[in-house]
Design a protein that fits this description.
catalytic activity; eight-stranded mixed β-sheet; 8 strands; about 325 residues; AB_hydrolase_1; alpha/beta; AB_hydrolase_sf
């Protein structure tokens, strides 16, 4: 089981509250299990490819939203850890994974959030536990702020809050950071496409993990298969490029519409998780994010990168369960 320590740090004005981990006994993480079976489903007028994690029928549903360039498979291990408590639905956002986008979809954060909200509402399962990583975290913040009736709790793993000073020097290959920028990104993408797929997978893993040695060969093989599948999808590269632009635009809006202004409107109990070695969205944004969301608590994990739910699934699961337990007892 993952036993990564939790940093408690010190913050002031106002202080950040750090989340207690659950004492629940969880199964050992088995990263050899394949992704959960997938299916296309239409809900709320939105068609997406999803992966369903079985769980207790009388429990609330967890919905998992991946980040930029990711897919529903980013949640395989965390969903497995939580499956004894809740059933789960991991979505492929429009244009990602195996979700073919509907004509006219504009790939803005608002459009992605609207698609997720409509899909959740159409499920008819009541308020859900919503979990989002990176761009999926930004999308989930929008859903929670605009549709509070849909959200039971919110978990944000390195959410893509505005970070206008990315630290490219920490990246193993800075080309990955600029491949989807407007104008200059196209030529970089062409050069990256010529790199052998195994090397591209390793570059990506080095970007999002603090320690690539934690990634078993089975997961590397799955990532390589996804790379090959996306290369055959005519919508994949345009969706990634335009979603990247949509994310950057959400960072540059006037303050009145900023994500920092959105955060205080979130009323759901919220867990914010960040890795100290996040190369994409600096952990320096973690305390501010947790302070601005009224009912948020923070978990900072040492020696962890941008995808804590993949790198330390057991620790993140214990934190999520800790939140759920405290919410159930009225102590959050």
């Amino acid at each position: 089981m993952d036993t990564g320590r939790v940093s408690t740090g010190t913050e002031s004005r106002p202080p950040v509250t750090y989340v207690p981990l659950s004492d629940a006994v969880l199964p050992a993480v088995d990263m050899s299990i394949p992704p959960w079976p997938g299916e296309d489903r239409t809900s709320g007028g939105v068609r997406m490819h999803i992966r369903v994690t079985p769980g207790p029928e009388d429990a609330p549903t967890a919905v998992y939203v991946h980040g930029l360039g990711g897919s529903a498979t980013n949640w395989t291990d965390l969903a497995a850890q939580l499956s004894s408590r809740v059933p789960g639905i991991s979505v492929d956002l429009p244009g990602f994974g195996r979700s073919e986008p509907q004509p006219g979809f504009d790939y803005s954060i608002a459009a992605h959030a609207d698609a997720v909200a409509r899909f959740i509402r159409g499920l008819g399962v009541g308020p859900v536990h919503l979990l989002g990583n990176s761009m999926g975290g930004a999308i989930s913040m929008n859903v929670a702020a605009d549709h509070p009736d849909l959200i039971r709790t919110l978990t944000l793993v390195s959410p893509a809050v505005p970070d206008l000073r990315p630290r490219f020097s920490r990246m193993s290959d800075p080309r990955l950071a600029i491949a989807y920028l407007p104008l200059i990104g196209a030529s970089v993408r062409r050069r990256l496409a010529a790199v052998p797929v195994e090397q591209r997978v390793l570059q990506l893993l080095r970007l999002v993990f603090a320690d690539v040695a934690r990634v078993p060969q089975s997961r590397k093989d799955e990532a390589a298969a996804e790379f090959a599948e996306r290369a055959r999808q005519v919508w994949a590269n345009p969706a990634l490029a335009r979603s990247t632009i949509g994310l950057f635009r959400s960072w540059l809006v006037p303050r009145s519409r900023s994500m920092w202004t959105l955060a205080p409107r979130i009323t759901a109990p919220t867990l914010v998780v960040w890795g100290t070695d996040d190369k994409l969205v600096t952990v320096r944004k973690a305390p501010r994010t947790a302070r601005l969301i009224p009912r948020a608590r923070l978990l900072v994990l040492p020696r962890t990168g941008h995808v804590a739910q993949m790198e330390r699934p057991a620790t993140v699961a214990r934190a999520v369960l800790g939140m759920w337990e405290q919410v159930d007892t009225g102590n959050w």
